Amino acid sequence: MDAQQIRKLGPMLSTYLDEFGDCFGRSEPAGNMRVYVNGQLSDLPRKSIEPMADRAKIPPRTLQQFLSLADLDDARMADRLAQIVARDHGHPLSIGIIDETGDPKKGNKTPGVKRQWCGATGKIDNCVVTVHLGYAAGDFHTLLGGELFLPAEWSEDRERCRAARITDEMVHRPKGQIALELWDRAVANGVRLEWVTADEGYGEIPAFHFALDDRGQRYVLEVPCSFHGWLRRPEVLHRQRNSPHRPGPKPRVPRLKVKNLPILEARNMVKYCDAFRKQSWEKFYVKDSTLGPVIWQAKAAPIYLKRDGVPTWPHWLIVARNMLDLNEVKYFVSNAPAGTPLEAMLFVGFQRYHVENCFEEEKG
């Protein structure tokens, strides 16, 4: 950017921050928000309270009180952000990205802290975990919303929650449920997501797939190699023959017929079944990296998932392997309609790096 473009950013940033002015109870906190944001975006070597306050010629205590005591309607702020994205960044290939991040913490007072998987350290660690919905559209990406994952042991100890200023309304919910609530909220604010993707922590749960199916949302979810399904639709019994001599309750229908196809793991479908074995691998460009273009090979075939004991309509099982390391294999499941190009589904499945960039930018 040249100097003239940089000078234009000041008024643009001010106009943008004005859209959040009514998210504060009074005008003073809204003004302090501008000071804090400008300080974070400045060239100060240290982005702590004192140098930012000195730069704006206000007492440091003013900014300290803003961060700890400001009357902020964070729900309205999140809604406003989604509305701005819907208004200014709609795109025919918009992708919602569900992911979580962990922040290491010491002690046991931070809301939601416990020993659990921490992505930042890559191991089980004492940390807090938050679930997020990101948005990627062309060269634009942002986080639409996030929510604290409250472990069950916290939810069951309301005194501990109150001491950490966690309201009684906030209880333990599975991460998949939090993700769906974030999706519902974004869509209610006008955001249109053409696709949704998530890692196998969400994709391994069939109920999460079905919840997106029920919402009419197209998705490409990474799944573990042990994910189950059928390559051919098994036969279903829709009507039970009357048998006056059969004791006990009537069998439930519809249900699978007794003699039927076995359900298979994704890795075994790819390894042993002709639907995959007779296909040739196709090469796809995924993205650029510091080492050059990232190229993967992939193939796909329709499969049927098991819901309420019977098969669903056809979904796609996609298998992809890294051409630089053929032992690196990923599996995806998509509810895209028949005829959807494999390249389109693979593109969506590899878009999670956008939200990872958002996490890095946020923590930096």
Q: How would you describe what is shown here?
A:
This protein is an alpha+beta fold and 364 residues long. The chain has 14 helices and 16 strands. The strands form 4 sheets. Strands 1, 2, 3, 4, 5, 6, 11, 12, 15 and 16 form a 10-stranded mixed beta sheet that branches. A two-stranded antiparallel ribbon has the order 7-10. Strands 8-9 form a two-stranded antiparallel ribbon. α2 (27-40) packs across α3 (49-56) and α3 (49-56) crosses α4 (60-69).
> How many discrete domains?
3
Question: What's the tally of helices?
Answer: 14
**Average of the residue pLDDT scores:** 90
Helical fraction: 25-40%
Radius of gyration: 25 Å
Strand content: 25-35%
Q: How many beta-strand elements?
A: 16
Largest sheet: 10 strands, mixed
Shape: globular
Spatial separation of the terminal alpha carbons: 21 Å
Return the string of H and E elements: HHHHHEEEEHHHEHHEEEEEHHEEEEEEHH
Contiguous uncertain segments of 5+ residues: none
Keywords:
36% helix, 364 residues, alpha+beta, 3 domains, two-stranded antiparallel sheet, ten-stranded mixed beta sheet
At a glance:
Helix content is 36%, strand content 27%. It has 364 residues and is of the alpha+beta class.
How is this fold's topology laid out?
Elements (H helix, E strand, L loop, with lengths): L2 H16 L8 H14 L8 H8 L3 H10 L4 H15 L6 E10 L9 E5 L4 E15 L2 E9 L3 H4 L2 H6 L11 H14 L6 E4 L1 H4 L2 H9 L4 E5 L4 E2 L6 E2 L17 E2 L7 E2 H7 L1 H4 L4 E8 L2 E12 L2 E2 L2 E2 L3 E8 L2 E10 L7 H8 L3 H11 L1
Parallel strand pairs: 1-5, 5-6
Antiparallel strand pairs: 1-3, 2-3, 3-4, 6-16, 7-10, 8-9, 11-12, 12-15, 13-14, 15-16
